[in-house]
Amino acid sequence: MQTSFSPAQLADPETAESAGIVRKCVHCGFCTATCPTYVLLGDELDSPRGRIYLIKDMLEHPEQPVMDAHVRHVDRCLSCLSCMTTCPSGVHFGHLVDHARSHIERHYRRPLPERLLRAALGWLLPSPFRFRLALIAAMPLRWLGGAVPGRLGAMLRLAPAAPHPPSAAERPQIFAAAGVRRGRVALLAGCVQNALAPAINEATIRLLTRHGIEVVVAEGAGCCGALNLHLGQEDQARALARRNIAAWRDLEIDAILSNASGCGTMVKDYGHLLREEPAYAADAARISARARDISEYLAGIELSAPVIATGQRVAYHSACSLQHGQGVREQPKQLLQRMGFAVADVPEGHLCCGSAGSYNLLQPEIAAALRDRKLAAIATTGAELVAAGNIGCITQLGSAADRPVLHTVELLDWATGGPRPASLG
After folding, report:
1. Which domain, by its residues, includes 324?
2. Using CA atoms, how far apart are residues 158 and 197, in angstroms rounded to an integer?
3. Secondary structure element (H or E) that encloses residue 401, with its range
4. Could you please report the per-residue DSSP string of 82-117?
5. Cα dihedral angle (270, 275, 280, 284), rounded to 10 degrees?
6. How far apart are CA 53 and CA 74, in angstroms?
7. Is the pTM of this model over 0.70?
8. Structural contact between residues 48 and 32, judged by C-beta atoms closer than 8 angstroms
């Protein structure tokens, strides 16, 4: 795609990168077939190709006000990155749309309620403590979720009946390996997941230590920054990334593991996010290179044979951040199969479930339509259970599913000697 950025504009590293991304687009349209919002809405401006046109126009003309249409269609993007898997030209749409969101937050004044909501999400979600307080405050209103329309109703419907208390798995400490130590890893304990599903971290730690892997939950590590970045709050995202890098850079470990694929995708991109910061660039690149999804790491070690009778039919929902963001597709299914589960692929598995970080809170109608489409596809598999590798997907699907939705690692832990997951009853 032809661009007309001035030399002065191209002197800015962010603009120069975005210009290069735009120029790679050859208008082929392959991305439209795999973009959830285009498949759902049929609007060219809600496709990656259409958004590239809008972003190009917005960035090339910073002297002009950002238009409502620019904001509306960029906001509707899920950042699922399915278009990047499809694109034959290597267009890194993820970096482009993140730049666009940051530009919008700097140059566009949203209505006051919108500004307050986005600021609240950016402040609450990265902190397990603050998020738990918000969930407690929402408990008396949770029963209204089905009757309240729009964003407030979506928030109430997604809220659990009661937030989980702090788990030992989220406190900084070292979990010793059982028997001979075969490896040592850092685990990103995360933020939202601690309040919504602490059992995921607990299962991860049990599974790893049972197989001889020492697990470090490092002092100072916390939210990965993805939630803030996708809200256009780039400064906050960078600050969280720096904090994690400071917590991890001196550790003697084999890998940095994430069991929330949205977080893992973010950590793997720290090298890009902080590439212009001399004090952090080298460490950020090194940490990105050591980041692994939990399924990637487990695929490289020999798990013990199952100690329970498995065989349940499991529909594997491949989170967008895992399959498109990290290119991890087969390992989770192979791990489940090795444990004796019958794994079923979900039709239209490349399409997003509508979670996408805080997207299901900001765009609840589109998110609900994508969720229902995904659940209908899951129903065709005849599976008893649904497994996924991301807390956002688990929460989104679990809010309306007629069968248990749980993390892949919970099933692996159960099969090799851990407790039966509570979500199985």
Report:
1. 313-424
2. 13
3. none
4. HHHHH-TT---HHHHHHHHHHHHHHH----HHHHHH
5. 30
6. 11
7. yes
8. yes
Residue 245 Cα distances to 23, 170, 254, 256, 262, angstroms:
33, 18, 15, 11, 17
Task: Report how far apart, in Å, the C-alpha atoms of 173 and of each of 176, 203, 254, 257, 300 are.
Answer: 10, 16, 17, 15, 24
Length of the chain: 425
Can you say how many angstroms the Cα of residue 66 is from the centroid of all Cα atoms in its chain? 28
**Ramachandran quadrant class, 29 (left: phi over 0; alpha: psi -120 to 50; beta: rest):** left
- Co-location of 83 and 25 in the same domain: yes
Contact at 8 Å (CB) between 335 and 412?
A: yes
Radius of gyration of the chain (CA): 21
Q: What is the CATH number of the domain that holds 245?
A: 3.40.50
Looking at the structure, tell me whether residues 179 and 258 fall in a common domain. Answer: yes
> In 3-state terms, what secondary structure has residue 217?
strand
Edge-first strand order for the sheet with 183-187 is 173-175, 213-217, 183-187, 255-258, 291-293
Could you tell me if residue 133 is inside a domain?
Answer: no
Give yes or no for a contact between 353 and 317, defined as CB atoms under 8 angstroms apart: yes
Question: How many domains does the chain fold into?
Answer: 3
Q: Are residues 294 and 317 in the same domain?
A: no
What span, in angstroms and rounded, lies between the C-alpha atoms of 201 and 225?
Answer: 19
pLDDT digit string, tens, across residues 60-119: 998 899 999 999 999 999 999 999 999 999 999 999 999 999 999 999 999 999 999 999
The angle formed by the CA atoms of residues 120, 194 and 329, to the nearest 5 degrees, is 100
DSSP secondary structure string for all residues of 183-195: EEEEE---SHHHH
Task: Output the DSSP codes for 274-325.
Answer: TTT-TTTHHHHHHHHHHEEEHHHHHHTS-PPPPSS----EEEE---HHHHTT
CATH number (domain holding residue 34):
1.10.1060.10
Same domain, 327 and 350: yes
CA-CA distance, 295 to 288, in Å (whole number)?
17
Place of tokens 């409502």: 68
pLDDT tens-digit readout, 4-22: 899 999 999 999 999 999 9
Residue 132 belongs to a domain: no
Q: How many C-alpha atoms does 387 have within 13 Å on its Cβ side?
A: 26
